[in-house]
Amino acid sequence: MNAGPYLPKISDLQAGLFVALVGIPQCLAYAMLSGLPPMYGLVTAAIPGMIAALAGKSAGVTVGPTNTTGLIILTSLSPWAGQPDLLLTAMATLAFLAGLSRLFIVLMRAERIFDFVPEAVMVGFATGAAIIIALMQLDEFLGAPFSNVRNVVDEIRLLFQFDWAQFSFSSFLLATIALASVILGKRYVPKIPVPLMVLVISIILVAFNLTPMAEEWITLGDTTVINDGWPKLAQTFPGWSMIQALIIPGFAVAFIGSLELIVTLRNRQEPALLRRELGSQGLANLVGSLTGAFPASTSLTRSVLLDIGGARTLWAPFIAALVLIPIILFGSDAIRSIPQPVIAGLLIATALSMLKPAAIRQMLRVNSATRSLFLVTVFSTLILNFHEAILLGAALGIVMFLFQASQTSLYLYRVNERQILEPVKTPEQCDHLLIQVSGSLYFAAARQLPDRLDALICESTKTLTLDLGHAHHARVAAVQALLNFAEHCQHRGIRLDISSPSPELKQLTHSMGVRLPWSDQTLHMHLSREQTP
Question: Where does the signal peptide begin and end (predicted)?
């Protein structure tokens, strides 16, 4: 922890306390979003948060539960939801695997894997997740929490069957106030923790029964067991079947959670710290899995609050985590008194913050491929498990990229009597053609090349110049494709000249013992003519 290094600065104390207090309702809400008792959210912010601060380098990164991974955790742990002991074992196993996945990425120097997630997938995932988070809170918003709700389909079905006689205006009012406190507070008084003030006031109203409305509010103490002291830890080791079931979700949690880290570091102009921060979060999750934490990641919102609070050194995120320890040990009375409508309002506010209208409009307008990728990710997020949806979107994006990269661009020119090139869009009757090949020449792109070239040749063509000056990444498949095409031209009585090959391509053909009709002289003539105005 940096210089002036051994003592925290006043600004670090202020930022740490600010983030800890403002983050309490978020941590509780995200634990419940993950299908876990709320106190585990505080543990996840405390232990992994301290470990990540000790092992990290950035003063502006705080680690704990997040909304982006909450629903992945929920769906991943749902098979053990009715078995509390196994649920804790699965929670610890998932955290351990998420930490291991991050460390594996660091050890393999594979950070570039995150570059393969298209922007359309990220925007689609965030949009689908926001819709689900908001929909799943509507029953608490109405003051009549549903039971046995496993997914968004169950929630929608029960909403259509809702008995409006159970509607609680006081719960609706409180949830609306909590929602408005986030939206209006962030807009007009961003440095004042308005949501925290609403939370504290609601706790006081419940604890001291200061209003008749408080009797109608369902509190966290009514729906879950909350006691002073450290929450119960996993008592058994996971079986192989549990580990197998959680390997992919563990990687998905690490993968998606790391994207918020990348955004945070880019915003702070600290991208060079990515490997160090990934490693620190991997270690934080490994330790957290042994101490009652579920998978932790960079919290984008609380990291922004560190900057607002004036964080200068790593003491700030460490203090933000440390402050939660006494609350876990001695704050159960206050936690039990939190009304669920407040949590519902905060989560819906979180969902709204995840929606990016400008980005959504861009995804829908750019081109058909981007639009399709965005819509597929949104709908798969709504109907599949979260980790399946994000991995499907990423895989589809990679497939689309490979498909686009598998075709080189071909530009057709007619060579007239004065040896000057004239661009043409379709094959014409002419004696001499030049085809310029642009793009990569490997695998599928190379294998398609002979047929695509053949389709551009006229019946009257006697001479064909193949310009490879803009082709690159030629592999064995490219040599085989050029050899096949040369034999095809010879069979048709067409003279083939191949100009501007790269030194690597010529060396490759030599190593393979292959002879192709290179023509340096033709290349020079055509390039000089092509550049003549």
Answer: none
